Amino acid sequence: MRTLRFLLEKEFKQIFRDKGLLPVIFIMPVIQLLIMPLAANFDVKNINLAVIDHDHSGYSQQLLAKIGSSGYFRITANTASFPEAMKQIESEEADIIIEIPANFEEQLIKEGAGPVYLAADAINGTKAGLGSSYLNTILADFNSEIRMKLLPQQANTGIDIRSSDWFNPYLNYRIYMVPGILVILVTMVCGFVAALNIVREKEVGTIEQINVTPVKKWEFIMGKMIPFWIIGMIDFTIGLLIARLVYGIIPVGNLFLLYGFLSVYLVAMLGFGLLISTYSDTQLQAMFVAFFFIIIFILMSGLFISVDNMPVWGKVIARLSPVTYFIDVMRMIVLKGSGFNDIKIPLLIEIVFAIILNGWAILNYRKTA
């Protein structure tokens, strides 16, 4: 333990002497956590709408007014024909076309139904799908209002659907994204810095001095890992404070449980970074290898796309990543207030990751003396 203490003193001195490293470790995650949740938003608003109103009746004007006041659409063009509206789509001045046929109001009154045609630019599939869904909802609501006016007795019959949204009642996308982004920032800081750690010793030539000392391999790896484990804890705590003060996200679950899972996760990710470092000969090589894997971890972790929606091979890759489990657990504890029984399987998996990655790093570290 005395040897390990000296190694830790050495590592902390090296970290605080490097004036360029400190901003990367502490300031960069803060700035990213302040900016990224504001940009990483899948809520689709300000959808440009081209209108073709062949009817120009009271009901068609009411429908367009309802669409415009929804807050999701901007009516950017009123055209006389479908080819003119398509030109708006082709020039990217409109995202969706809505065409109201002639005799729309007359059909509504006489037949109780009136067709409306929608066409969406599906290059951006998310925007087209959500935009069309919003329009369908507005049209269904407008249809209910018309039925209430024309057929009040029939309008009162039917199924009364009431729904409630748990854990995020206002469907605020930031509440969903901030916990996941915090996990990614901690992963990037610890993963990248740990990957560069042993390689830096190789490049400056101090690794040979360490190799001729009686320092054991596990002591060397632990000495490299513990300082950045502490830094990861500090970064995570700062992130939780920002989430609370800036975004109003207060963890519902037990913080001790959250930090317990985090402590195991950091051991796993630091072991992963140190494993890369033992295989690399230069910092540039370690940086690119770490970047390759961390990008895969981010994209396949369920941060943006649910793992359940991935193909089978994608699910396999996702489940081989420690990041996937921590993002799930982070959202479960922070937003749902999940307890130990809910996270015990992911915790066990993270422990397995930690043992394998750190054991591999210790075995692969070549000590010549």
Automatic annotation (TrEMBL):
The keyword Calcium does not apply. GO terms for cellular component: plasma membrane. It is a multi-pass membrane protein. Residues 135-368 form the ABC transmembrane type-2 domain. Signal peptide: none annotated. Pfam families: ABC2_membrane_3. InterPro entries: ABC-2_transporter_component (IPR051449), ABC2_TM (IPR013525), ABC2_TM_bact-type (IPR047817). One of its GO terms (molecular function) is ABC-type transporter activity. The chain crosses the membrane at residues 21-40, 175-199, 226-250, 256-276, 288-307, 345-363. It is found in: Cell membrane. Keywords: Cell membrane, Membrane, Transmembrane, Transmembrane helix, Transport. The keyword Transmembrane helix applies. Belongs to the ABC-2 integral membrane protein family. This is ABC transporter permease. It comes from Chitinophaga oryziterrae.
